[in-house]
Amino acid sequence: MEASEPPEDSRGTAQDSPQAARAARATAASAPQAVRAVAASAPQAARAGTASPTRTPPATAAPPARRAPGLNAGRLWAGGVMAAGVAGLAAVAALLIVRGVLGVALFVPRGDDVMESASTGMLAAAAAVAALVTTGLVHVLVLTVARPGRLFAWLVAVGTAAAVVLPFTTAASTGSHIGTAAVNLAVGATIGSLLSAVGRGAVRRGW
Predict the structure, then answer these.
(1) What is the mean pLDDT of each run of 10 residues along the chain (207 residues)?
(2) Do 199 and 142 form a contact (C-beta atoms < 8 A)?
(3) How far from chain centre, in Å, is Cα 185?
(4) I need a surface site. Which of 11, 65, 73, 113 has the fewest CB within 10 A?
(5) What angle, 0 to 180 degrees and rounded to 10, lies between the N-to-C axes of helices 174-202 and 73-95?
(6) pTM of the full predicted structure?
(7) Contact by Cβ (8 Å): 162, 90
């Protein structure tokens, strides 16, 4: 009897078994290398993950725009008109005291060292006009100056001082010099105090 030959599949399997064994050994040999590579790359990934982000330079802030002064022009000029009326009344009251009570004649310069008697209406009108002009000055200062109240106080003080000194430059008597200076001082102080209060009420910030 002839011995039966093994099936072809079993021969193929027997021949492939050494190759499969070598492939398994190669896979087993490469496994530690893969583990070491993963272990070596892990600290680098951790360091990359924990690295501080790149800092961008802060943007330069734009300079703040100048804020509007917050002026209530209607309130300012309404107060200016009332201040003009009060200044006129103050001039009349001062004139009555100096001329009527003290008996001192008041004169105003007309030009070329010529003096004329100061009338009640003339002084009242001059005081009212001065108050209105000062109101316009306040309006301009609020629109152009950072702290208009301080500058306004200085201007009123200088203007009042000039009005007080002016009568002494004329050829009138000493009594007339003092009487006119007193009236001018009263009018200047009235205008300055009233328009300072009006400015504080008409300017919402920055007075």
Answers:
(1) 47 53 60 56 52 54 54 93 95 88 72 63 91 96 90 95 88 82 93 94 84
(2) yes
(3) 35
(4) 65
(5) 160
(6) 0.62
(7) no
